[in-house]
Design brief:
With about 140 residues, the chain is mainly alpha-helical. Helices cover about 50% and strands about 5% of the residues. The protein has a two-stranded antiparallel sheet. A hairpin with a 5-residue loop joins strand 1 and strand 2.
Length: about 140
């Protein structure tokens, strides 16, 4: 998940494109962004990030620092701010952030069980969530 939001600082440091060209929906069009080569680059980024030595506390601190920095940077942008994605698309910042939420919602759950420390084929152990669920009343 940190990989997904790590792109924000560089995007926000870059010049703003003059206008948005696509929406969050159009961002997911079938082109080279869905190619094996592009997926391989994304996987390599995630593997590099995951290879960093960290215990549960360090992992949680890194995640917390990453999202807080991205949040501050996004919050401080003017209304109508456009960004250029790593695929070259010019998008409104809120549309890009929406695409990141979709990425986390779609791909995040498949990664969560890997933090339990269980090896493939071993019995599953409960995963301690970073944020406990809110009680419902």
């Amino acid at each position: 998940m940190c990989v997904v939001i790590d792109w924000h600082p560089a995007m926000l440091d870059a010049p703003s494109p003059p206008e948005a060209e696509i929406s969050a929906v159009a961002y997911y069009r079938p082109d080279d962004r869905l190619s094996s080569q592009t997926k391989g680059k994304r996987i390599a980024l995630a593997q590099d990030r995951a290879a960093r030595p960290a215990d549960g506390g360090a992992f949680a601190e890194d995640f917390g620092a990453t999202w807080r920095r991205a949040y501050r940077l996004c919050r401080d942008q003017p209304g109508g701010r456009t960004v250029r994605t790593r695929h070259g698309d010019a998008m409104l910042l809120p549309e890009f952030v929406l695409s990141r939420v979709v990425e986390v919602a779609v791909h995040g759950p498949s990664a969560w069980p890997t933090h339990s420390g269980a090896k493939p084929g071993s019995p599953r152990r409960p995963v301690t969530p970073l944020c406990p669920a809110r009680p419902t009343t």
